[in-house]
Specification:
minor pseudopilin epsh fold; alpha+beta; 4-stranded antiparallel β-sheet
Length: 205
Amino acid sequence: MHSGFATNPAVSSEGLASTAGYCAFTLIELILVMAILTIAVSITAPTLGRFFSGRALDSEARRLLALTHNGQSRAVTEGFPVELWVDARQRTYGLEAEFSSGTGGNDRDSKAEDFTLDRDVKIEVPSPAMPKTVPTRASGAPISTASVAPAASKHPNLPTIRFLPDGSISQDSPQSLHLVDPEGASLWLVLSRSKMHYEIRNQNE
């Protein structure tokens, strides 16, 4: 009695061995492929590294700029000074409101934000503060800071950009922050000529 599976006499053991031989790579071919891949990776790796490093640098600069806008807006809206602090040694920075002594000055700001720098980016504060000049608005009118309530900084030993409730920036604030990546590329967060906001530049002009 036959099993129902017919054996095709045309497919011999020699034919199967021949077909398997066409589908497989030889050891020499695999070594050649690995060598080509290694060369390709070694050529493209530096370029890819610079690409991702540049993206990290740009991302950190834009996040800092966004924090300055947020801090200035909060100071005006909430009526308290808001500081953007920078700890270059710990590679951290953040935004936090200063509350006057009579309004819970020991309480932490519930809207405070803390960030850690990307591992490929470092931050420097090359200039400690603005020149001692009277700040003015875009219209040229002097800005009064007499109504600002006394407040204790939560980061007294760190460089801070301090935004005041009248929309101005404290004269003790740094004029610029410098971001640098391992390749030497850099971006600056620089106080604008109007002294009313910060902006990103490729170099500190």
